[in-house]
Write a structure and sequence with these properties.
- By secondary structure, the chain is an all-alpha fold.
- It has two domains: 92 residues, RNA polymerase sigma factor, region 2, helix turn helix motif (Rna Polymerase Sigma Factor, Chain: A, Orthogonal Bundle), CATH 1.10.1740; 75 residues, Winged helix-like DNA-binding domain superfamily/Winged helix DNA-binding domain (Arc Repressor Mutant, subunit A, Orthogonal Bundle), CATH 1.10.10.
- 70% of the residues lie in helices and 0% in strands.
- It is built from nine helices and no strands.
- The longest helix has 22 residues.
- The radius of gyration is 18 Å and the shape is globular.
């Protein structure tokens, strides 16, 4: 219920901005979602300054393209999508994206090594950060959205513009890798 009220407040501010052109109506949105965007950008970029730049750039894009926002949808999700795209644009620009295949290291991960969805919820996200850093970006993003932000599968699929099967596969691969990394540290 809190998010619905938050979304309604966001839409009121956006409507007021669109009707008056007063940028002061946009400032509460920046204050409300700046930290949210920074955490996500930093989790992908692993650089404080790049994350700050991406968030600032994303707010500028949101501000200039606010007419493309669909009222009665989630501004938070729309803004996070801009942060997501800007982060990956920066990664591509820096050629920092590395895609790994499960078999690249010559290791076969069996199903019993997989970190189950039930178990991953019980782990502290902070403890897993070191292991998450070792995941490819597309797997890390899916894990963060599902288990840190607690988004449902449908929302994640719409956000990442991927089919349900792809999301399921990414989460399964991520869980296997995290289990392997987690057991290796113990």
């Amino acid at each position: 219920m809190k998010e619905q009220k938050e979304g309604e407040v966001d839409d009121v501010l956006i409507k007021k901005y669109l009707s008056t052109g007063n940028s002061g109506y946009f400032e509460p949105l920046v204050e409300r979602y700046e930290r949210y965007g920074y955490v996500y950008a930093y989790s992908l970029l692993k650089n404080e300054f790049d994350a700050q730049d991406v968030v600032a750039e994303s707010f500028l894009k949101a501000f200039t393209k606010i007419r493309q926002y669909r009222l009665d949808s989630s501004f938070k999700n729309w803004f996070l999508k801009i942060v997501h795209n800007s982060s990956f644009d920066l990664l591509r620009k820096n050629k920092a994206i590395v895609y790994l295949d499960d078999q690249e290291n010559g290791e076969s991960l069996s199903a019993d090594q997989a970190l189950s969805y039930d178990n991953i919820d019980s782990l502290d996200f902070g403890e897993m950060q070191k292991s998450l850093d070792q995941l490819p970006h597309e797997l890390k993003g899916a894990v963060i959205l599902r288990y840190y932000y607690d988004w449902d599968y449908k929302t994640i699929c719409e956000f990442l513009n991927i089919p349900m099967g792809t999301l399921s596969s990414r989460l399964n691969r991520a869980c296997k890798r995290l289990r392997n990394l987690y057991e290796g540290e113990m």
